[in-house]
Amino acid sequence: MEEKNLEIWLQQYRNGDLDALGRIVDETRVPLYRFIYGLVRDPHVAEDVFQDVWIRAIKGLHRYQSDRLLSWLYRIARNRVIDLSRKKKPDYSLQQPMASGEASNATLETFIPNKDQDPAQEVQNLELAIRIREAVDSLPDEQREVYLMRTEADLPFKVIAVTQNVSINTALARMQYALRALRDLLADDYEALHAQARTS
Amino acid sequence: MKPRELENALLLRESGELSETDLKELTIALEQNPELAKQAEENQVLQQAGPYSSSILVPEIPELTRARILTIAEKPTNKNLSRLLAIAALLVLGFGLFPHLSNSLQPEHPVVAFDVTPIRHSLTAEDPILDTLRELESELSLWSSYDMNDSSFLEDETDWATTLISSEESI
């Protein structure tokens, strides 16, 4: 994701080009939504938060001065999720253990076997995806945030550090801890993950 | 580089934030240190795991949400328009009310002493207020004849002083 493009589109939107805002939303929606989803673990809540992030962002555009649109968006998202977890405890607590059967949050499409793929393989992939999700969900909040921002949104550490309001070394340390924890939690799945990483 | 710095360098290399110098140093370290090379590979696998899981489990965000966001984004223009209209209405109202407001906001005429003679002339001879007026006038004329340096006042004061001192001495 080119942040420079985002800044140009943002300027175009400020000059009255609504399509430019559409381009920003399109460019950021998958990683931002996945980041939010990774924190709230509910597609409907994630949708509401995603929309709310953009409403707040649009309202605050006149105050937005820096050239770090992404860290600004992720910071709004992060704060919104923290607000929700405070208000809605225990429903959306960030520490809440994941409900059994993460697949209940998946769409029906998830269960329709890909015609190009063996159905048995499809089920294995789904099970692996659920185990990964459970492992990521078990990380402490700060580590999970860094992991999601880094892996889902491809944010550099300097932006992650700004979003979390910490030093870059702290952000790096949190990522190290997250990876160490995941290495232990997913030790049995490492071969499958390795094979998956080679094919992707 | 120390072990911790090398671990951080692995992460910074993947995020594209490692300087040229550090990248060269890391490349040499990776060639010489199989443990570090293994860790680098594991890091990559584990960092790809999250997006892989999301690609299967996280649903697409509905198109409707995007449409809602863009609709909301359009509103500031309408908001500005309504704000302008409100300002214009206030201005019109202000111009309309100005003459009335300026009259009512004028300061009251100051109260000035005026001659009572015309009033006296307007009263009848039997009017009871005339007696009151006459009494007041005589009182005033009485007081105007007194002088504060009059010796009778001064004597009076001396007497009072003598009385006070003598009573204090007796105590």
What's the arrangement of secondary structure elements?
The complex is a heterodimer of chains A (200) and B (171).
Chain A: H1 3-14, H2 18-40, H3 43-59, H4 69-87, H5 108-111, H6 119-137, H7 141-151, H8 157-164, H9 168-185, H10 190-199
Helix pairs in contact in A: 1-2, 2-3, 2-4, 2-7, 3-4, 4-8, 7-9, 8-9
Chain B: H1 3-14, H2 20-32, H3 34-57, H4 63-104, H5 117-122, H6 129-144, H7 151-170
Helix pairs in contact in B: 1-2, 1-3, 2-3
Keywords, separated by commas or semicolons:
heterodimer; A: about 200 residues; mainly alpha; about 70% helix; about 0% strand; B: about 170 residues
Describe what this molecule looks like in 3D.
The complex is a heterodimer of chains A (200) and B (171). Chain A has 200 residues and is mainly α. Residues 90-113 of chain A have low confidence and may be disordered. Chain A is built from 10 helices and no strands. Chain A has helices spanning 3-14, 18-40, 43-59, 69-87, 108-111, 119-137, 141-151, 157-164, 168-185, 190-199. The relative contact order of chain B is 0.03. Chain B has 171 residues and is mainly alpha-helical. The termini of chain B are far apart. Chain B is built from 7 helices and no strands. Chains A and B meet through helix 2, helix 3, helix 6, helix 7 and helix 9 of A and helix 1, helix 3 and helix 4 of B.
